[in-house]
Amino acid sequence: MQVSLFVTCLVDQMWASVGTSTVEVLRRVGCEVEFDDRQTCCGQPAFNTGYRDEARQVAQRFIRIFEESKADAIVSPSGSCTAMVHHFPELFAGDTQWAERAKAIASRTHELSSFLVRVLKKEDVGASWTGKLTWHDACHGLRDLNVKSEPRALIRNVRGAEFVEVDNAESCCGFGGTFSVKYPEISVAILDQKIEAIERAGVQAVVSGDASCLMQIGGRLSRKGSKVRVMHLAELLASRTTD
Amino acid sequence: MNHLSSETFGENAKAALADTQLRGALRHATSLFGKRRLEAARSLSNWEDLRTEARAIKDEVLLHLDRYLETFTANAEKRGAVVHWARDAAEANEIICGLARQRNARTIVKSKSMTTEETHLNDALEAAGMQVVETDLGEYIIQLAHETPSHIIAPAIHKTKGQIAELFTATLGMAPTEDVAQLTSTARATLRDRFAAADAGISGVNFGVAETGTIVIVENEGNIRLTTSLPRIHIAVMGIEKVIPRFADLDVFLKLLPRSGTGQRLTTYQSFITGTKRNASDEGPEELHIVILDNGRSRMLAHPLTRQSLACIRCGACLNACPVYQQVGGHAYGSVYPGPIGAVITPQLIGIEKTAQLPYASSLCGACREVCPVKIDIPRLLLHLRAEVAAGPKGNAMERMVFKIWARVMMSPSLYKLGSRAGRMMQRVMPLSRAWTSGRDLRPIERQSFRDLWKTKYGQ
Asked: CATH 3.40.50.11810: does it fit domain A124-238?
């Protein structure tokens, strides 16, 4: 299957290894991966902060670029950015032509774990990683895309990994995009609930499907001197060694 | 921690975060409510269908609200009620003060009603020389403390047992105790005397049934039953959105409301009031007045997206589920209605100018939408309001400029690459954002961007 990678600007700029891991995993399960390096951002920061014109501009550019791709699917290592693409038709409400183009792109765009499990029907991608870990449900993946069982199924098939649930896996980490810098104190207060649960669980790593949440969680863990590391699902699935 | 302004939400929130008693009380109460709601919802196999049905009923009502309100009014008046229409809070208060004045009412008992909080009715009645006593335990506590409710269904949720004991000792002269039964019975004894002496009773309304002209009120303490039946005159205040078409629709709403609010399958009391008493020898008030309030609500009707804001049945589930509310509580919002639904309806009720921070008081996690019994898409409404703020006079000029520049960068791969290099260089020489790094470390940016790796690693 031909896949066009929507790497997201955050992964591209801040955490490139999530991107390379995504490529490794997709290739391992037999996909041909292309990357159009004209891509930048999906427009989410502007959309979520209230700047619709700017969001539309950037979204139109995104649509134009990915329309040119002949790939069967557009795959992204982010629930949040995928959800944004799924919001495109709403962003162009009242503009039938763009709304239609947006809808067509949205229907081809998948978050990594749901692409593997729902589209490719692969729950075992041949990964191995030794240690105890837990999963953080990133909000937009969970509530906008209904991604819940897919990453868990993938994790359970990672050889050597012991998976435990934390009781507040579905609670927000407090990131929320610009929210995290508009109201940093509230953002960190919310985050601390998450951190407490992670620490209680006695895991070596917390895994999630969004680099943004992981930067939030990891930033606090690091500030507190915790030994728990954060890992993107793509990194875990790409792993074939004992870590 | 009281009478705060929405305009200082950020500051209010910081103060709330420093209040360890408040945070302890909130953590305990919101998690308990949340757990009970989930259990109650799971006890019904058709929970999702009920939510869909409830929303469909509300959508139908809101689409033809004028017609349903007329039917409700006609049927309530047929049964002896007098219906009054109030365009805004001032009109509502004038009607109610006028009714009380004409009947020489001195003492008024009130049951819990967010709508009368919204109109600041107590202030108006007191200014008119009347004594008002809140009879809901939580409302009574905050009345004694001269505070405002911090939750839609649990007004004193921000107070610990110890704080309430201190308050009762200071105001009711009771011996210091933290025994809940004793605290409650002291309040009850004081309130019973008030009921007996009251000249008028004022209540809110949960549902107004158009088909029969019935008003429905749910509660657990029995104080509403007393407020609406003991005094000679009962005045009920309802927002225009409280009307539902048929009596049979209550089957849906009375399943959803208690389960979503307190996690109960049924509240202890459910009062169905249809007009006044039929015979002189019957018990109950001689007069029933229903004040129907707009106060900005009809503005929400105009837009197909914002209309759903009026579907809210005031269960408070979104407050309990909201990570922001869980941390800062209701007072920080500086609005009568706090939490996610408060951040949606307050700007629409009183204007976005005074409430521009509220739509941003959310991480957009969507937990509110997930628990809402009438499926209000709160995150989507918050985004809609954010766009209004950003485009309006309360928009932040600096932020607007940043997003203009951001869009230029994102529109141009060469600017984007340039920015990427600049960012990598800057991270070495200066700390990026204080707002981020005050509580969190910034993950070091990897040496190469993905697009560079793509070329070097995969040679493409």
From this structure: yes
Q: What is the mean pLDDT of residues A192-216?
A: 97
Is the CB of residue B233 less than 8 Å from the CB of residue B244? no
User: Shortest CA distance to B371 belongs to which of B326, B309, B330, B317?
Assistant: B317
CA distance to partner chain A, nearest, from residue B321 (Å): 9
| Torsion of the alpha carbons at B118, B304, B341 and B373, rounded to the nearest 10 | 110
The residue whose two tokens read 């403390």 is: B145
CATH number at residue B100: 3.40.50.10420
Amino acid at A69: S
Residue B47 burial (10 A CB sphere; 0-12, 13-18, 19+)? middle
Q: Mark yes or no for CB contact B360/A182 under 8 Å.
A: yes
> In what side-by-side order are the strands of the sheet with A128-136?
A159-163, A128-136, A205-208, A229-232
**Residue for token pair 């308050």:** B167
Tens of pLDDT, residues A147-174: 999 999 999 999 999 999 998 999 999 9
What range defines the domain where residue B278 resides? 6-298
Chain B partners within 8 Å of A47 (Cβ)? 383
Site from A9, A49, A148 to mutate, B interface, most B CB atoms within 10 angstroms: A49
Residue A165 to residues A124, A139, B258, B447: CA-CA distances in angstroms? Answer: 19, 16, 30, 33
- Strand partners of residue B113: none
- Enter the tokens of residue B113: 């009603």
Residues 6+ apart with CB under 8 A from B186: B168, B172, B174
Name the closest residue on chain A to residue B419, using Cα atoms. Answer: A13
CA-to-CA distance for B313 and B207, rounded, in angstroms? Answer: 9
* Å between A109 CA and nearest CA of chain B: 20
Q: Indicate whether B344 belongs to any domain.
A: no
Phi, psi (degrees; rounded to nearest 5) at B54: -60, -45
Retrieve residue B224's tokens.
């509403």
Integer Rg of chain B from CA: 25
Question: Does residue B360 lie within any of the structural domains?
Answer: no
pTM of the model: 0.96
Residues A134/A207, Cβ–Cβ less than 8 Å: yes
Per-residue model confidence (pLDDT) at position A243 = 47
> What whole-number distance in Å separates Cα of residue B341 and Cα of residue B334?
13
Whole-Å CA distances, A167 to A142, B149, B171, B443: 15, 30, 42, 26
- Beta strands (DSSP E) in B4-163 are 82-86, 107-110, 131-134
Cα B312 from Cα B372, distance rounded (Å): 8
ipTM: 0.96
CATH code given to domain A2-118: 3.40.50
Q: HSE-up of B203 (CA within 13 Å, CB side)?
A: 29
